[in-house]
Design brief:
globular; single chain; 18 strands; about 30% helix
């Protein structure tokens, strides 16, 4: 076998929706051939159980580098991704400093990632008031799309865009065929911080400060702009089930509208969050159990077609872990490494569980990113990005096993999950093996289609 070639065998390879014993020949990071059948003697040893499937994509990750690497950074974030079977992550334009709203800032972020990409990394640019002229430069540089907030982002360097700003930006984005991702909350008369002012440790007061009406109003406004501009519009981290009828109606009209939710909106419920438990603080907030069941049904029906973790860790002091102050605590959930087991714990008993999981975390995200020509399948010519995992393996979440920064702020600590990642390959390289990172910097930068050269 030539240098640069390797063979991998597994008895349960997910090929065209079916599990088959197969030998994969990998050459220069891509799948050169697939031979269905028993193990070849020369094949590399791998665990002889579980499932081998394409590596997952997490389209919503806050890496925070440069500028806030003490919150999270490329090295730790991509280690966590590999440990979770995620072979492609897309970085949000905040909370790094500088934020990715100019070409210069994007170039600085690319430089910061050098030598630290243990999985593939792509980038969203940002839309903020005053950076309209930068959008075409960012598009030419290869960003995969753009992110905007309709309320304060939590970071003054990334101000929220008003609807007039978005109306001017969306035709530029649409012309490039890229999506606009929107944090869809708008200030609403039903929102109030009075409860938090009176009792900043109150979990119920935090929930009341971000009512579903804020999401509904924002989503209705974005549907109207989507209709006017025909720009691909993506609602991130939906938490308000009451917005689903408007979303369904827009989709039935054929608008280019897509929606994601985050695992924590499906797994946790506000009834179970105690006062002072700021590890659960995020925006929009985690809502009631009944609401989350409606979100889960929308996931099963395909209305919510993608999952993104919205991974956003922060130091314990910034998260107010000692004070339990919801008013001051950073709003972000640390969870990148746990997307697969959390979803499998929720969906594993469904008749079509594996198909549903791969749709949410592989097929639809790679379609959304325009990468279906080379990622998201075990197929000849595709990049050798895949994960080997054991669906039946039950484990408790412990901080010592988490690769991202500040695992002590992770709300999943102590939870018992099913679905254990055993190995992760990135571009043909074994990066994660039995709880350890064994290969560094195997990831590549992901650019949008017109920027890609190979």
């Amino acid at each position: 076998m030539d240098i640069g070639e390797k063979e991998v065998y597994h008895p349960n390879v997910l090929i065209d929706g079916e599990l088959k014993a197969a030998n994969l020949l990998i050459v220069d990071g891509r799948i050169k051939s697939i031979r269905i059948g028993e193990r070849d003697l020369e094949s590399e040893e791998v665990p002889q159980f579980g499932i081998l499937m394409p590596g997952m994509a997490d389209i919503h990750v806050h890496i925070n580098e440069p500028g806030n690497t003490d919150w999270e950074g490329f090295d730790t974030a991509t280690r966590a991704a590999a440990a979770g079977g995620v072979t492609t992550i897309i970085d949000m334009p905040l909370n790094s400093l500088p934020v990715t709203t100019t070409l210069a800032a994007f170039e600085e972020k690319l430089q910061a990632s050098e030598g630290k990409r243990h999985v593939n990394v792509g980038f969203w640019g940002g839309v903020v008031p005053g950076n309209l002229e930068e959008l075409s430069k960012l598009i030419e540089a290869g960003v995969l799309g753009f992110k905007a907030f309709l309320v304060h982002s939590g970071l003054d360097a990334f101000p929220n865009a008003d609807l007039a700003t978005l109306k001017a930006a969306m035709p530029v984005i649409e012309k490039a065929g890229l999506p606009l991702l929107v944090h869809a909350e708008l200030e609403h008369e039903t929102a109030s911080t009075e409860g938090l002012d009176a009792d900043p440790q109150s979990a119920d007061a935090w929930l009341a400060s971000r009512p579903q009406a804020m999401e509904i109003s924002a989503i209705e406004s974005m549907i109207a702009l989507c209709k006017q501009t025909n720009c691909r519009t993506h609602i991130v981290h939906l938490s308000a089930a009451e917005a689903l009828p408007a979303i369904s109606a827009a989709m039935e009209q054929g608008l280019p509208l897509t929606v994601e939710t985050a695992p924590h909106y499906l797994f946790f419920a506000s009834e179970d969050i105690l006062d002072g438990e700021v590890q659960y603080k995020c925006a929009p907030p985690i809502r009631e159990h009944e609401n989350n069941l409606a979100l889960l049904e929308a996931v099963k029906e395909g209305i919510i077609s993608m999952i993104g973790t919205d991974h956003s860790p922060a130091p314990a002091a910034l998260k107010q872990m000692e004070s339990g102050n919801f008013l001051k605590a950073w709003g972000g959930i640390a969870s990148l490494q746990l997307m697969l087991p959390v979803l499998w714990t929720l969906l594993g008993k469904e008749e079509n569980a594996l198909s549903l999981l791969t749709d949410l975390c592989i097929t639809k995200p790679y379609q959304f990113l325009g990468l279906t020509d080379r990622k998201g399948k075990i197929e000849v010519g595709y990049d050798a990005d895949f994960v080997i995992w054991q669906p039946d393996w039950i484990f408790g979440v412990e901080a010592q096993d988490l690769k991202f920064r500040h695992p002590d702020t992770c709300p999943y600590l102590g939870e018992v999950l099913s679905g254990k990642v055993l190995q992760t390959y990135v571009n043909g390289e074994l990066v994660f093996d039995q709880d350890e990172i064994v290969q560094s910097n195997a990831g590549k930068i992901i650019y949008h289609e017109s920027k890609r050269t190979s």
